[in-house]
Amino acid sequence: MFSRRLLQVGRLLQLPALLSLTLLLSLGCRAQDTEANATSNNDRSYQVGAPLSDSTVAAIVTSEYGVDTLTAEAFRQQLGFLLQRYPQLQMNPALLPEVHKSIIEDFIVRHVVDGEIVRQGIQADPAAVEQELEQIRSRFPSPEAFQEALAQDGLTEDSLRSMIAQMVRQRTFREQIEARATPPTDAEIEQFRQQQAEEVRVQHILFRLAPDAPEAEVAAVKARAQAVLDSIRAGADFAEMARRHSEDGSAQEGGDLGFIRRGETLEAFEQAAFALTEAGDVTPEPVRTRFGYHLIRLLERRQGTLMDVAEAREKLLQERKQEAVQNLLKELLAKATVRINPALVQAQL
C-alpha cells in the first residue's frame, strides 16, 4: 500500500525504486529539446472496472490476492513527489495523464507482485535487511539525527526494517524472474552489435495529440497530418512544412533531430525511422506515438562504432531479463481489476 510513509521513507532510502516499479520501466528521455524522444509505457493487461465516486479514494484493485486501496491523499502525495523529482513534467501538462496512469499502474503492479511474493513464500534474508538498514543509518551524521528523521517521518526502526524487508523480497522475486532469461549466443551478439551501431539522421513533423484524446480529435489530427504528407509527396519541401506545421521544438530547424540510435526514441518512432532506406524517403503514413502523429524523413544513414563484445553481451542479456520481467508482470496483471476515481485520476486506462 502507498501511504505518506512511503514518500517519507523515500527521502531516507533515497531509492528511485520507491518512485514506482512502473515508472522505472517507463519513464526516461534523451537530453534533447524534442519530446519525440522518450520511452513509452508498455500496454498492461489488467481489467478496468466501474468508476469510483468516493472522493477519499483514488483507486481500488482486486485480484485473487485480495483487495488494496489507494487513497486520494496518497495519490496526491505521490504525484507531488514525482512533480518535484521530475520538474520537466510540470513544464508539460500534456504528460500529466501519463504520470497519473503510471501511479495507478504502479499501484496495481505492487498489488500483484506483493501478492505473488506471499503466495510463493519468498522471505527476506535478515542479513541483507540489516545491511540495507545500516547503509541508511550511515547517511546521517549521528544516531540522534537518524532517530530524529525517523520520528519526523512517523517511523520507528522496526517499521523501517519491515519496509526494507519488503523491498528485499521484491528484489529477490525480480532476480528469480531474471534468472529465467536465456544467455545470448555469439551470433546473436554480433547481430545485436551491428544493429546498435546503426544511426539515422531524420527530420520529423509533429502534430500533437494527447494519449487519451477522443476519437473525433484523433481523426481530425490524423487527417491534418495526412494532408501535409500529401503535400510533401506532391513536391512540398519537408523542412518548410516542418517550420509551418510542426508542434515540436525542432520545427525551426526544419524538424531535424540529428542522428539517433536504436533505443533512444519511442518504439513506434524508432521502427518507422529505421525502416526508411534511402535518403529522402518519408514514412508512407503518419506514425502515432503518445505525443501525437509524426511524419518522418530520412536524411542520412551511417554505421557508428561497434559496441564492445562484452558490453553487447551484457546489454542484450539485460534486455532479455527485462523482457522476462515484463512477460511475468503481464501474466500477473491479467488477474487484477482496477477501479479508479475519474474526478481525481486523469488517465485513460
UniProtKB/TrEMBL annotation:
Keyword terms: Isomerase, Rotamase, Signal
InterPro entries, sorted: PPIase_dom_sf, PPIase_PpiC, PrsA_foldase, Trigger_fact/SurA_dom_sf
Keyword Nucleotide-binding recorded: no
PROSITE patterns for the chain: PPIC_PPIASE_2 (PS50198), PROKAR_LIPOPROTEIN (PS51257)
GO molecular function: peptidyl-prolyl cis-trans isomerase activity
Annotated signal sequence range: 1-31
Ranges for domain PpiC: 197-300
Name of the protein in its database record: Peptidyl-prolyl cis-trans isomerase C
